[in-house]
Amino acid sequence: MTVPPAAQPASVAPAPRHVAPGPGRPEGPPIAAAAEIRPRHHGILASFLGLVLLPVLVSAAYLWLVAQDQYASTLGFSVRTEEISSSLDLLGGITRLSGGGSSDSDILYDYIHSQELVGDLDAQIGLRGIYARAWPRDPVFAFDPDSTIEDLVSHWERKVRITYDSNSGLMTLQVLAFTPEAATLIAEHILERSTEKINALAAEARDDATRYARIEMDRALERLKTAREAMTGFRIRTQMVDPAADLQGQMGVLNNLQAQLAESYIELDLLRVTTNSTDPRIIQAEQRIVVIRNRIEEERRKFSESENIPGGEDYATMVSEFERLTVDREFAEQAYSVALASYDSALAEAQRKSRYLAAHIRPTQAEKSEYPQRWTLLGLTGFFLFAAWAIAVLIFYSIRDRR
To answer: What is the Cα–Cα distance from 49 to 40, expressed in whole angstroms?
Structure first.
């Protein structure tokens, strides 16, 4: 019996290999085709020349051939607070200096950027004419004199550069103009107007500190005037300066009459003891007693009747009204004294604390032009143009590879 041969495994053809060319070896297919310049490459180059190189050359030509020189004036100041201790303190009379509150410096910072300051300087020194000196030769860095006040404020922010340290309160300004004299003039007026603004803020703070005390003092003064006018009206109506003094005078008359009445009774009793009843001296003494008693009754009626009293009022009513007016006047005088002392104290306290503008750098005058910073502007222009062009090229290739 014939045994079939064992099945042989099927042979697997080896994968084709690219054999590197060499001596005695056949040359294989190339790995990649040779690079060629395509139309898109020409477009990218043209875009670089038109969007990057040409604008940089135009910017350089403008900066060096058209742009006018600008001069800088530097100014530095800070808001200071001076506080003098009261003489009642242990170390009275010592002056303490400290940095101004952040609110004052912040207000001044906003004021320098404000339209109010720009308008005032334009009216005083002709700010439009100063910034329009190079117009229309330099339309980029010069100001169009026919523009609005809002455009002038925007141009002002380009010409006045402020560096403000909120911790120390120091503020440094750099003012640009087309002549050194103009830059110094603008810086001097900024310092002057800033000083006026700080003085106005200090005066307003003093007014706020003394406002309520002054209101109370004025109110107490009006009350005192009213009380004194009421007292004067009472004296004119009653024709009495002091009813109490007049009453004391009347009481003195009454006491004197009562004393005379007592003496007359004693004299009459002596006559009756030493003489007979027909003695004319007894009749005279009796008549004297009757007259004195009638006078006493008349004087007593004055206290309750108003016919014989100036003003037509009885003494009780006049004295009561006079006492009420006296109490009102004394209270008004005391209230006015207290209000006046409070106002003097508030005024002294407000005067102890004063704020002012301290300039640690006076406005300088440049001797050479430092602006515009041509190389810096040209470098920034080229950098941003190149960055924008590169991003655009990357976006183009990203879109092309997704197709």
So the answer is: 14
Q: Confidence class of residue 322 from pLDDT cuts 50, 70 and 90?
A: confident
Averaged pLDDT, 243-258? 74
Closest CA to 385 of 396, 374, 397, 377: 377
Q: CB under 8 Å to 77, separation ≥6 — which residues?
A: 171, 191, 194, 357, 358, 359, 360, 361
Average pLDDT over residues 201-220: 84
| Model pLDDT, residue 317 | 77
Radius of gyration, alpha carbons of the chain: 54
CB 271 within 8 A of CB 285: yes
pTM of the model: 0.60
At 160 the pLDDT is: 93
Q: What is the pLDDT of residues 10-40, one digit of tens each?
A: 444 444 444 445 555 555 555 555 556 677 7
